[in-house]
Amino acid sequence: MHHHGYLWTGPKGRFDQDALRRPPHPESPLAESRPELIQRYREVAAEFPTSDLPPLETAYWLIKPRSLVRGTWEEVNEAASWLGDRLAEYASRFASDRDRAPTRLARLVDGAARRLRSGADVSYGFYLERPSYLSLAVVTCSPNRANAELACPVA
Predict the structure, then answer these.
(1) Chain-centroid distance, C-alpha 72
(2) Residue 10 contacts residue 133 (beta carbons within 8 Å)
(3) For 20-29, 58-67, 94-103, which range has the lowest pLDDT when averaged over its residues?
(4) Does residue 143 surpass a pLDDT of 80?
């Protein structure tokens, strides 16, 4: 088992494009469906796997382009340390004073390490100076507990 790190920052409005953050339904619309429904399905099916937007379900980072992987670690503490370094890097830009508190950030890193040791994924999000958003994730790979069918992006 190993872990991959992901980071995304961008406009909150883009982050809110939920349709591009979830995989398309496994079954395409029927041929007699409304043309706009068919077109939207095709757009989502084409864009979801290649988009850099954070998926709604953390495990789906694994189907995104390998170029989005910011680091890979065998050791949980190394993955948690990367997460802690990113939190420290962005903390001064967090919109909430509460989110900047060093004790809170330390608790987030400790909690992430515990979850990663159990085989779970970790995903954190923070509002930055308006209207930006930061998404951080560490995804357990080979296999992923939430979705074991997803292949490793760097294998």
Answers:
(1) 14
(2) yes
(3) 20-29
(4) yes
Helices and strands: H and E segment counts in the chain:
5, 4
Chain centroid to CA 112: 14
Q: Residue 115 has which token pair?
A: 């979850």
| SS3 at position 17 | coil
**Residue 92: both structure tokens together:** 């001064």
Residues ≥6 apart with Cβ < 8 Å to 70: 4, 5, 6, 7, 82
Judged against a pLDDT cut of 90, whether residue 25 lies above it is answered with no
Q: Which residue has the tokens 């872990």?
A: 3
Sign of CA dihedral 63, 64, 67, 72: negative
CA 61 – CA 16 distance, rounded (Å): 17
Q: Model confidence at 103, in pLDDT bands (50, 70, 90)? A: very high
Q: What is the DSSP letter of 87?
A: H
Does this model's pTM top 0.70? Answer: yes
Residue 41 CA to residue 146 CA, distance in Å, equals 24
